[in-house]
Each structure stands twice: as structure tokens, then as C-alpha cells.
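Quick sanity check, Transcriptional regulator, MarR family:
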Amino acid sequence: MDEPNCPVLAAAAERYDTTGQPVTAASIASALQQRESAVGTRLSRLVDCELLAPADGGYRPTVTGREFLDLEAECGPFIVDIDGDPRS
């Protein structure tokens, strides 16, 4: 998983929308044909950035995560300041 956050977030949102249930690292790893441990690390980082939220033993996309996906931005490093003052 060299460029991981976008594919993992997109897969999590798609699976959540399809099933209506929180997604797990195992289900995303299977869908992306990646190691579950690597996907689990990415899911945790996406939670830290408030793009996913923990829910009932899995994860669900947040409004911010959906907005990020709607941007259709290229995958890569992004600066996310979750504690910043939105007025600055």
C-alpha cells in the first residue's frame, strides 16, 4: 500500500453505503487485496484525521470523509489541521 489513504477511504465508504453496516479492516483488506494489518493502520490514521469514525466494531465514513472523496483530489500527502481555527 504505497498510496493508501484514498483507496482505503473510498473502499470503506463504498462498502458502508452498500451494506449499511460499519466496515472492518478485514473486509476492506479483502476488497483491496491487501494485508489486514496494513489496512488497519490506514483506518486508524483516517480516524485520526476525522475522515472515518469508529462505529459498532468497525468504521463509518464521516461527513468530512465524504467531502474529501467528493473533491476527487489526487492521492498523496495532505495537510489536515483538525485543531486549527477555521477563521484563520
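Posting the structure with no commentary besides this: Helices lie at 5-19, 25-32, 36-48, 63-70.
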